[in-house]
Amino acid sequence: MTVVDVHAHVFPEIGRAEARRITGSDDAPWLRTTDGPDAGMMMAGTAEYRPVRRTLWDPAARVADLDRLGVDVQVLSSTPLLFGYGLETARAADWCRTVNDHILRYAAHAPGRLAPLCQVPLQDTEAACEAVSEAVRQGFHGVHIGNHLGDRDLDDGALLEFLAHCAEEDAAVLVHPWDLPSGPRHARYMLAWLAGMAGETHLTILSLILSGAFERLPASLRLLFAHGGGSFPYLLGRADNAWHRRDIVRADSPHPPSSYTDRFSVDSAVFDPKALRLLVDVMGAERVLLGSDHPFPLGEESIGRLVRESDLTPEERDAVLGGNAVRFFGLTRSPQKAAR
Question: DSSP labels for 277-296?
């Protein structure tokens, strides 16, 4: 069995001068590093954003981590701070190309072990589609996008056009919450991450369902939501109840929300065995993929432990730990097995 972690981030060693030159912004994200295992700082201009571990930018340290943790393959996505959705199109396209080139070089350190996803200038549909097509030719396994653009959710017409193009290119899509709710109520105790992220993903999934977007998107689209689908799996009964009882809820969706769980997948980053059990019961074991949020502190420290120690059947565990991801991301190569 191949163990595949589908939710893991990188932040390439992009310095401030390079970031400022490409984006034209003094507030552009960049990485400040020094020697040591935890000697990195994600920066936004002159502001310190978050301290980070060496594995975030050092592929040798990453592979050593994977060997220690018993993970054969990691699907790599950029840190959402790097998306660049606020840039004008030409600069955004150059920025995404730069980030993608860095990620390709990072993944090339261990072909078959590190599977890269690209990022795109999602604010411009034509440029985003061109970027995905180019990335597929370069060997990326799919694309990593934020769950919304300002007030536009993924059911927006232009964003649906982009998702349909991903289906045409056979590019898997990982959707990650970003641009989280702000203000005093979310500023305390990391509540923007603890509550805001779950709500953002829930909102996006329901927007796709209730708008009828899944009726218009190709069934071949491979769509994956991070963090266990946020609040969606646990509040699905509420959404179904509302669909049956209120015509305003079902106005654009011909079927109740529970009818659409076969149109997308989720990762397993829920950190609790009862939550994982419910997630598998709601989504089906074939649509849950191992995800850790590595190497951030809010991620699963012992990648896969929750799944391995769960009450899932052996067949379900094997599917979640790797079988589903191999199919979802087209990981046909056989990586060197990690140390167990």
Answer: HHHHHHH-GGGEE----BTS
Residue type, 117: L
Helix H or strand E segment including 43? strand 40-44
Residue 16 to residue 197: CA distance in whole angstroms: 28
3-state secondary structure of 319: helix
Residue 4 near residue 287, CB atoms below 8 Å: no
**H helices of the chain, where?**
16-23, 59-69, 89-107, 125-138, 157-168, 184-187, 191, 197-210, 213-216, 236-245, 273-283, 305-308, 314-318, 324-328
92-134 confidence digits (pLDDT tens): 999 999 999 999 999 999 999 999 999 999 999 999 999 999 9
CB count, 10 Å around CB of 253? 20
In the sheet with 29-33, reading across from the earlier edge strand, the strands are 29-33, 40-44, 47-52
* List of domains in the chain: 4-9+56-328 (3.20.20.140)
CA angle 77, 81, 84 (to 5 degrees): 95
For residue range 218-241, list pLDDT tens digits in order. 999 999 999 999 999 999 999 999
CA dist 186 → 87, 190, 194, 235 (Å): 26, 7, 9, 21
Give pLDDT, residue 340. 42
Distance between CA atoms of 235 and 282, rounded to whole angstroms?
Answer: 10
**How many residues comprise the chain?**
340
Share of the chain above pLDDT 90, in %: 89
pLDDT band for 37, please (50, 70, 90 cuts): low
What's the mean pLDDT when you consider all of the chain? 94
The pair of three-digit structure tokens given for residue 337, joined into one six-digit string: 């097995």
How many alpha carbons lie under 13 Å from residue 211 in its C-beta half-sphere?
17
Question: Could you tell me how many helices (H) and strands (E) the chain has, helices first?
Answer: 14, 13
Inter-helix orientation angle 89-107/16-23, to 10°: 140
